[in-house]
Amino acid sequence: MARPLEQAVAAIVCTFREYAGRCGDKHKLCQAELKELVQKELPTWTPTEFRECDYSKFMSVLDANKDGEVDFVEYVRSLACLCTYCHDYFKDCSPEPPCPQ
């Protein structure tokens, strides 16, 4: 049975592959694909009042090479930043309840 971290890595890769390529390049997310991924895969972390211009700003932040799409490296960097934010937010919290094994 796969360990949680192995499952997490597989989920990251599979989620990207599920959404990328619907609008063209199967190795990149266009803004519509990114919007759908965020809305469906991070629903409780996405403000319901996010407007189209908010997605445009989000896209421009993630799109480091400014090619109008988010490639896998840019996607993973954004997830790493999200993980860092969560780690910093919860680092002083009690470890109870312990993480499931």
TrEMBL record:
Q: Does the keyword Amino-acid biosynthesis apply?
A: no
GO cellular component terms, semicolon-separated = cytosol; Golgi apparatus; plasma membrane
Q: In the UniProt record, does the keyword Calcium occur?
A: yes
A Pfam family of the record is: S_100
State the source organism's domain of life: Eukaryota
Q: Recorded GO terms, molecular function? A: calcium ion binding; calcium-dependent protein binding; transition metal ion binding
Keywords assigned by UniProt, alphabetized: Calcium, Citrullination, Cytoplasm, Disulfide bond, Metal-binding, Repeat, Zinc
Signal peptide region:
none
Tell me where the transmembrane regions lie.
none
Q: Which residues form the EF-hand domain?
A: 57-85
- Which CDD domains does the protein's record reference? S-100 (cd00213)
Cellular localization per UniProt = Cytoplasm
Record function comment:
Binds both calcium and zinc. May be involved in calcium-dependent cuticle cell differentiation, hair shaft and hair cuticular barrier formation.
Q: How does it assemble?
A: Homodimer and homotetramer for the citrullinated form.
Name of the molecule in the record: Protein S100
Q: Which gene encodes it?
A: S100A3
